[in-house]
Design brief:
The chain is α+β, with helices and mostly antiparallel strands. It has 4 domains: 1-35, no CATH class; 38-103, Sandwich (Immunoglobulin-like), CATH 2.60.40; 126-235, Immunoglobulin-like; 296-420, Sandwich (Immunoglobulin-like). 19% of the residues lie in helices and 36% in strands. It has 5 helices and 27 strands. The protein has helices at 2-20, 231-241, 245-265, 400-409, 415-435, and strands at residues 26-28, 34-37, 41-44, 49-51, 57-61, 72-73, 81-88, 94-100, 126-130, 138-143, 151-164, 167-177, 183-185, 188-195, 207-215, 221-223, 227-229, 296-299, 306-315, 319-327, 335-341, 351-356, 358-360, 364-369, 381-387, 390-391, 395-398. Strands 18, 21, 22, 25, 26 and 27 form a 6-stranded antiparallel sheet that branches. Helix 3 runs antiparallel to helix 5. The longest helix has 21 residues, at 245-265. The termini are far apart.
């Protein structure tokens, strides 16, 4: 009887283990002999999912993946859902359910995201820069010489360290694919990756980047160690290599603007973007520029069914004009705002852009113009609201600079707010001088 109780106790313990470990669908008897074996997930890391290797069983990742008898799926993204399927022989596919790779919570410079990833590449040099436009697109270029012949499907897994005030908030993650065509950067044929949506206040934020590349001959996905950088590091690099005073002034004014946004938003102010640039401070635009008002009606439309009713400013990841409109049209589908302007870089010719209607009747309709380069903040935008191809509003001239001027004239006593607006205008003027 005592022996039976002991066996029952062992079985109860095994049952409890199986309940707590649903991914491991096999059991052992007291002699460590496997007595149950079914297809299952056995291990998960940030970049791999391991499954139980079994005779005559194949696995695939996703409903369109390739069947394989290999026991590890590698080159996966951290903190991402995947579905593993299995089949016996050439039978029907059966799902093992959704498996989520584990998250990376604190990537370290020059360390592997997953030291157990079976296929790893040595570190290769990135060439980084950013586009001094409105949304601060951050570019990474990777020399194609090592990859173009042997690898495809190049992707970046980007972890962006964020703050709440001066405290660490968390990591934002994104996946960035390489541009479809090779580009030339620094006289080198490169793959180009563009990380959009960065704000000026985030210039000092750590970016931890891992490259994924699929080997053509085997289909295995390789990863590189983490590459840690910041947009500020690229700005400093550009500043050190700048060959003209106008370019140096532009970068210094930009760093001052980024620091002003940090102070205004109280974001990571212990690490300001313009710290330690005293050797370049004499290049900054010292005096506040004289701002120009561009605000006029240039064409009146009889019986207009749309009218401009006010403007506001967006200082999020992009600088933008929010143009409020009154609309009496019953059907608001296919209503757009069309603008035309001459950029600071006149060789580009007249620019024509179209924006979709946002908002609703209850809260108000508006258009958001948020893709204007800093150099063009002073450009006069000719704006007209259209229903399809038919104008339904007067035509108005307006500019970002006009909006900033009216905000400064409103008499705010918030010095960080005032400093931000003037820093923005200095940056805009130096961008105009450099790009025009």
């Amino acid at each position: 009887m005592k022996k039976v109780k002991n066996h029952l106790a062992v079985l109860l313990v095994l049952a409890l283990v199986l309940c707590l470990m649903p991914a491991t669908a096999f059991a052992l008897d007291e002699n460590e002999t496997e007595i149950i074996s079914v297809p299952c997930v056995t291990k998960v890391t940030p970049t791999t999912i391991s499954v139980k290797a079994m005779d005559n069983v194949q696995y695939r990742l996703g409903s369109t993946g390739t069947w394989t008898s290999e026991a590890v799926f590698s080159g996966l993204y951290p903190n991402t859902n995947y579905t593993v399927y299995y089949r016996y022989g050439t039978g029907d596919a059966t799902s093992l359910g959704v498996t989520k790779t584990t998250a990376v919570t604190s990537p370290a410079s020059q360390q592997y995201i997953d030291s157990e990833a079976p296929y790893q590449l040595s570190m290769t040099g990135y060439l980084t820069t950013f586009d001094l436009q409105n949304d601060l697109s951050f570019f990474l270029y990777l020399s194609a010489s090592k990859y173009s012949a042997n690898y495809s499907d190049l992707r970046l897994y980007v972890m962006h360290k964020t703050y709440s005030g001066n405290s660490f908030s968390g990591w934002k993650t994104s996946i960035v694919t390489a541009s479809p065509n090779l580009v030339t950067y620094n006289n080198t044929s490169c793959y180009a990756f563009c990380l959009k949506g960065m704000a000026a206040a985030e210039l000092m934020d750590d970016l931890c980047i891992t490259l994924y590349a699929k080997e053509t001959s085997t289909g295995h996905t390789f990863i590189t160690p983490v590459y840690a950088t910041t947009m500020e590091a690229s700005a400093r690099n550009l500043l050190s290599k700048a060959t003209s005073s106008s370019q140096k002034t532009l970068i210094v004014d930009f760093l001052n603007y980024a620091a002003a946004t940090q102070n205004y938003f109280s974001y990571n102010t212990n690490n300001l973007a313009n710290s330690n640039i005293s050797s370049y401070s004499n290049l900054a635009t010292q005096n506040n520029p004289t701002l120009v008002t561009t605000n006029a009606k240039v064409n009146t439309l009889p019986n207009a069914t749309a009218s401009f009713s006010g403007t506001s400013f967006s200082l999020d990841s992009k600088i933008g004009l929010r143009m409020a409109v009154n609309i009496t049209e019953t059907d608001t589908s296919n209503i757009t705002l069309k603008i035309s302007y001459t950029p600071a870089k006149t060789s580009l010719g007249t620019q024509n852009q179209t924006y979709a209607l946002k908002g609703n009747k209850t809260d108000g309709y508006y258009f958001l113009i948020d893709n204007i380069a800093a150099a063009d903040f002073g450009s006069a935008f000719e704006m007209t609201v259209y229903k399809g191809t038919t104008p339904i509003s007067d035509t108005r001239l307006y500019s970002v600079e006009s909006r900033v001027k009216s905000m400064l004239e409103a008499g705010s006593t918030n010095q960080n707010y005032i400093n931000l607006l003037w820093a923005m205008m200095k940056y805009s003027r130096s961008a105009r001088a450099f790009f025009s």
